[in-house]
């Protein structure tokens, strides 16, 4: 019965609810990925962390892999589970979802491998390993490296639109993080070259030898002591070295 002559409330006019859980899961994944890769400076190590984090954080994804192409180097791969590593490895041929994603620069989706015909040899291997669905999303790292992140399901038909969105966001975020990893690796390599030059350079080399003798430490640690002193005193490294060598070389009185 309706009281007061008012029309009954139409509950069907409510706005559609947002998939809050999916948003939170994706945000948590990206945060965890950032935390896991933020200080890494080895690209292969970063790939290993990436695939393990994605496997554990994306619902209904049983395995995760990454196929990497780097200029001047053999193709690389990482897998969250070694038993499935061959699915991301190009030694078995370029005809696969990861390579399709990389070549076309677009997401490649196969939610049910039982009826898939695009990659016959790869699909046979995948099904033999228990894979029933895959999403491969291209990842742009930098001008020298590209790849694809691959999400695998162990049941057909469970990779949904939500998984496609997650894969897209994951690929975008992973590309930025992996680019930073490669940049840190380059910086570390350049720093190593500089250190090598400094270790063999005149007065700096002498100062390093003094510190090694005084502290009983290796050359790289002695160089860091010099750098710390230069930073604290706000003077050039060479000047710090000259002062130290002059001080220890000065004859002691009486």
Structural class: alpha+beta
* Low-confidence runs: 1-18
Strand residues, percent: 5-15%
Helix segment tally: 8
| Estimated radius of gyration | 28 Å
Roughly how many Å apart are the termini?
114 Å
- Work out the oligomeric state of the chains in this entry: single chain
Task: Give the domain tally.
Answer: 2
Q: Could you say what the CATH topology of the largest domain is called?
A: Beta-Lactamase
Q: Reading side by side through the largest sheet, how are the strands ordered?
A: 2-1-5-4-3
InterPro entries: ANTAR, GAF, GAF-like_dom_sf, GAF_ANTAR, WH-like_DNA-bd_sf
GO molecular function: RNA binding
Keywords: Transcription, Transcription regulation
Domain ANTAR: 184-245
